[in-house]
TrEMBL record:
Pfam families for the chain: OmpH
Keyword Coiled coil: yes
Gene Ontology biological process terms in this record: protein stabilization
Record-level Gene Ontology MF annotations: unfolded protein binding
Gene Ontology CC annotations of this record: cytosol
Keywords: Coiled coil, Signal
SMART domains: OmpH
Residues forming coiled coils: 50-84
Species per Swiss-Prot/TrEMBL record: Neisseria leonii
Name of the protein described by the UniProt record: OmpH family outer membrane protein
Length: 166
């Protein structure tokens, strides 16, 4: 008898949730979708952020490239060296250079990602403001971001990018 009661309650709950879901869906009159990746790639603010970060970190990247070139040249010297003592000394130098490169690369990656996240957080705040303004102005009931699939007719990404670029 308890199993029947559980099944009846489960059926009632399922039916109720389906009914409330359809009522909720019917209340949505206007739906929009934003492709966040496109906003982060195509807006002027995003492009400006990328250029700023490139300028800010270019000297450190160049220093890493120099270490890499020196390391490759040293590898060639090691390969060509016949004297065991000299070769051992060059290998120790190469090992130290390799460690220095890895440390500086890790520091650069961490600093770059921190700065990029800071800048893109500001971009996201700006995008959210634009999306909310657009939703109010154009009467959207629901605007979604980052969905698995949605019909292209709901995509308002171009409008958001256009507003952000004003």
């Amino acid at each position: 008898m308890t199993n029947n009661r559980v099944i009846r309650w489960g059926t009632a709950l399922l039916f109720g949730s389906l009914l409330s879901g359809s009522v909720w869906a019917e209340s949505i009159q206007k739906l929009g979708f934003i492709n966040t990746e496109r906003v982060w790639r195509e807006s002027r603010q995003a492009q400006s952020i990328e250029k700023t970060l490139e300028r800010e970190f270019s000297s450190r990247r160049q220093a890493l490239e120099k270490i890499e070139r020196e390391g490759l040249a040293l590898e060639k010297r090691v390969a060509a060296e016949k004297d065991a003592v000299r070769r051992s000394s060059l290998l120790a130098k190469l090992d130290a250079m390799s460690r220095e490169y890895r440390i500086k690369q890790a520091e650069l990656d961490e600093d770059y990602n921190l700065r990029r996240n800071e800048e893109f957080a500001a971009l996201q705040q700006n995008a959210n403001r634009v999306i909310i303004d657009l939703a109010k102005k154009d009467g959207y009931d629901l605007i979604l971001q980052d969905v698995v699939f949605i019909n292209g007719k709901f995509d308002i990404t171009d409008e958001v990018i256009r507003e952000m670029n004003r």
